[in-house]
Amino acid sequence: MAESIIKDIVDRKWSILLFSGIATLLALVVSLVLPDEFVSQASLLPANSKLMDKQRLYENNIQELYSAYGNAEDLDRLFATMHSGAVIHHVADSLKLVDHYGYGGKKNAKSLAQKKLEKNIKLLRTEYGELRLRVWDEDAAMAEMIANAMIDRTQDVFDQMFRSFYDRSLGALKGELSVYEKESDSTQVAGGRLEVAEIEKKIAEYEITRLNPPAAFFVMEKPSISLIPDRPKILLNVLITFLASLFTVLAWIAAKRNMNA
């Protein structure tokens, strides 16, 4: 069986080489025609979410109890936020990517720009607990701008969620304070006045904390402008196409031999 397959391969060697050569040539032409794309990349480490508690501002030993760097859950949270619509849509709008990508005047231009931005972005969680961000664009400077905009917007989204949490807490405390103030005014009970003072203290702490959101992550590697295109990878594309076409022909010969056997 093996000998017959080898004989078929030898007999068809020129056809095999011709087919593989044409496929490889097409891959080379397509790779040369495709525009060059530059990559800008950054490396981020998530911050420990436990340090978002207000005690970080009022307890000196909380920094000693917890590491500044987050765990796998914090990394997942950072990944989800950076890949969310709140970040993608804002970056696409703020950098006017509709015009940059050439979608101006087209139907659903904003949606097309956002989808292309998502396609040109890659987020990778590594075994070392970091998040790698890679952004491709035909303009090297724009790739860097997009990467920086994504990092800045991600922190903004974390800040908004942080303030929203304390806004709800402040609303509840102020409502509680209003009740105690009415009761203390009507009864003039010392305990009531102490409760009022305690709630006022909490409100002051919460308001200060709300104005000082912590960092959601640490930037280990800042985005930079690349001088050498990262895509297309011409040699890799040509090699993969050649091997794939060669394997396809050999598999076809083997399958045909089995059918005739």
Quick gist of this model?
By secondary structure, this protein is an alpha+beta fold. It is built from eleven helices and four strands.
Descriptive tags:
261 residues; alpha+beta; 2 domains; four-stranded antiparallel sheet; 4 strands; 66% helix
Number of domains: 2
Determine the fraction of residues in helical runs and give it as a percent range: 55-70%
**CATH topology heading of the largest domain:** Bacterial polysaccharide co-polymerase-like
Highest CATH level, the class of the largest domain? Alpha Beta
Into which percentage range does the β-strand content fall? 5-15%
**Largest sheet strand order:** 2-3-1-4
Please tell me the CATH architecture of the largest domain by its name: 2-Layer Sandwich
Q: What is the radius of gyration computed over CA atoms, rounded to a whole number of angstroms?
A: 30 Å
Instruction: Tell me how many strands there are.
Output: 4
* H-E order: HHEHHHHHHEEHHEH
Shape: elongated
Distance between the termini: 9 Å
Helix/strand structural class: alpha+beta
Low-confidence stretches: none
How many separate helices?
11
What is the averaged pLDDT score? 83
Query: Could you give a short account of the major beta sheet?
Result: 4 strands, antiparallel
